[in-house]
TetR/AcrR family transcriptional regulator
Amino acid sequence: MTDGIPFAGEPADSHEAIMRATFRALREYGYAGLSIQRIADEADLSKSTFYHHFDGKEDLLLSFQEFILTEFNRIFQVESTGDPEQDIKTFVSLVLDDFPDCVETPDKNAVLGSYVEMRAQAVQNPDFREKFTETDELFARQLVQIIEDGIEQGVFADVNPETVSRFMITILDGVILQSATRNDNPVAGVRDTIDEYIEETLILGTYSSH
Amino acid sequence: MTDGIPFAGEPADSHEAIMRATFRALREYGYAGLSIQRIADEADLSKSTFYHHFDGKEDLLLSFQEFILTEFNRIFQVESTGDPEQDIKTFVSLVLDDFPDCVETPDKNAVLGSYVEMRAQAVQNPDFREKFTETDELFARQLVQIIEDGIEQGVFADVNPETVSRFMITILDGVILQSATRNDNPVAGVRDTIDEYIEETLILGTYSSH
């Protein structure tokens, strides 16, 4: 799992250093307070070095969206264990539970918060909208694969993998939005219900043979 | 339902005129592009009249959050018909389906988009976070009431109204986030599954006696 930890180790190059600096500046100043000066300061680079990498703020933010989504894909990537019940629980747990603690790793709330702030830009920005649509689909396909494996192995009910997967991604998007924008812990209130939904909808034999 | 239509009729006073102007400016320039000059221009007011009403941008944005949440509460308020099955379907339909068309009414995507942009500010702003937590709870309580009525009347299964309600609000928050930030129509992909969830979880007799 260490490979899946975001921000671990030294940044590979100054592009990555700028991306991490943007993440820190976003945490500190919010989206509206992001400026090239602040990002250059965080990255300990001159503005001219910055402009060697990016044309300007818009160019930077498109790259940063790419960076955050890549981190997201890395965090929420489930390696198939051959046991679809385990895999689907791992997937849900990656969204709902805490990252394993790790030096240099921002806590999950910081990553989810940045994700929500970037995602809200998609309301106005068609490039962002296109990218988030693709990423949602990528996550949905990952779940479809797990569900298809489960049906094939005879451990999941014969559901429509597409619709169950979309429904689950919607639930997880709701949890992410709430977690990043509420002052209580909304996960605690829905965790059991999500587990029950999976047990009742997908997993064969939970109520009969277990 | 006309009472529930946002932005219908003339604004009651210049406070409301400024709120509507903020809404239009937000649609046009995005959250990062909101400025007092632009809002004053949209409202056809001088900046000095603006400052008669608000101390500054932060003060305005807190009022605007209040305004958007009031509109939200007005739109998503279900008058009990005495038939809980009908009421819960009305509630879901208010989130998932289109507003009835009405002169001066922005389309639902515009309202949901503004909601998501404001909600993303809560990542950074504790005042916003507190307010959105309250509003989520307000919606949840509305659903709890409908579910309790249904159980009492013997038409809903004996579920835990709190957990089912939280789960449904999470699903609807997920739909709202996706609808406002994707370039396809995510509601179409989950509508049937949400209806099925309600039928299977709540409504007694759907599969046996109907």
User: Anything to note?
Assistant: Chain B has a mean pLDDT of 86. Chain B has one domain: 2-201. The longest helix of chain B spans residues 126-152.
